[in-house]
Amino acid sequence: MKSILRSLFILISLFFVSPIVAVGPSGIYQWSVALKGYISTETGKAPTAYLWIPEGCQQVKAVVFAQQNMTEEMIFKMPVFQKRMQELGVGLIWVAPWFTQNWDPTTGCQQTFEEMMVGLAGQSGHQELERVPVIPLGHSAQATFPWNFAAWNPDRTLCIISFHGDAPRTNLCGYGTANVEWGRKRNIDGIPGLMIEGEYEWWEARVRPALAFQMMYPKACISFLCDAGSGHFECMPETAEYIAKFIEKAMDQRMLNDGTLKKLNPKDGWLACRYNPDLQPNDGDEAQDDIFQLTINNSQLTAGNAQRPAPAPYSLYQGDRHDAFWYFDREMAELTEARYAETRGKQTRTIEVGKPQWSADSKTVTIRAPKDVRIEVISGPLQFFTFHSSLFTFKVYPYEAGLDNPKRSFTSWLIAIRDGDNTYKRVVKPIEIKIR
């Protein structure tokens, strides 16, 4: 009977999820399917789910699942992240446009997801995708859905990544409206979750719900990383490595031989003190005129750091447990502390670049920048083309999101970066490009 029902489900799913022959022009994704069970309000048609499986991977062990917003694109395209996922046997799924921001099952998102996985399994020949563990990842307006996905899929969620985003059950959802109510019995106990917030977007009101969640759910395993030297709009290679290490730890500690996932006990991990900023909080507003101001002098900072408790195993931690976050082990806790030490107490400085120049003839954008500044693409239909005499050139290409989305098809985000040194913090400046 079960086999009959399963065959019927697959047939129904394939009716709603039809394969697309061509994959994205970026050359990353090998397979794609259209999610015909959902019509996007942005395009008036079905979103597309793109699948990347590492070269040589015979059996996919897990997949990172993200939807179009912004920095998800950058992370998935980073060579360092792809290399680490190849080593771990982890695939990538990117959906454009998104089909849910909050993961409210009453909207049918759960069915759309399951149909998507069946379609991608059939398209790629990797049947394990129908049941493989999932790592939901989302940035900003998509940063709430990973927590809610896990609450409705606790047995299938390997770990959770909320990137420059939200706490679980936050009252400040990145998409700007109310969160989804979990009910009294639903939780994410034993599922490792990572919340990341940039140093230059620091907002205490986003951190406090994460600390409160731990008090409400003492079996929760919530890690936190302040992305030191970073803002809201990018992902540093070091941070991509940190996310990959978090995924690796989840695989090592949770995956059992029978394919099920073990729930973790937070008391088996480590605790480390929350991040204490040395810049003036800006309530999440990353306006460049406001954030580059050091507001605590060195003597105050030294005194404050001297009181910071050392990371320790859960039972031995000497600090305030209500002001600390959980980590897998000593390595992750000390890696987090090392990231904080990179910028602590250093001065800040501004970063300026020339006004972007658009060429309709060559379909390129050029930006002049100082010699110690580099510019990278975050998202959208631009890709790096050339660099000469401090002039960066980016060329338009018909990327995966297509040319029929008025909200996203003709907008690209870039990031100007000035690395730090022994005196100055690393600084960044987001650049929005409207392609006409």
Plain-language structure description:
- With 436 residues, the protein is α/β, with parallel strands linked by helices.
- The protein has ten helices and 19 strands.
- It has a nine-stranded mixed sheet, with helices on both faces. The chain has a four-stranded antiparallel sheet with strand order 13-14-17-16, with no helix packed on it. Strands 11-10-12 form a three-stranded antiparallel sheet.
- A hairpin with a 4-residue loop joins strand 13 and strand 14.
Number of helices: 10
What is the fold named in CATH at topology level of the largest domain? Rossmann fold
Secondary structural class: alpha/beta
The main β sheet shows up as: 9 strands, mixed
How far apart are the termini?
57 Å
- Our Rg estimate from Cα atoms comes to 22 Å
- The CATH architecture designation of the largest domain is 3-Layer(aba) Sandwich
Query: Number of domains in the coordinates?
Result: 2
Weakly predicted, low-confidence segments? 1-22, 287-304
Shape: globular
Q: How many E-type strands?
A: 19
CATH superfamily of the largest domain: Alpha/Beta hydrolase fold, catalytic domain
Helix content: 25-40%
Order of helices and strands: HEEEEHHEHEHEEHEHEHHEEHEEEEEEE
Instruction: Name the average pLDDT.
Output: 89
β-strand amount: 15-25%
List the strand order in the largest sheet: 1-2-3-5-4-6-7-8-9
Please identify the top-level CATH class of the largest domain.
Alpha Beta
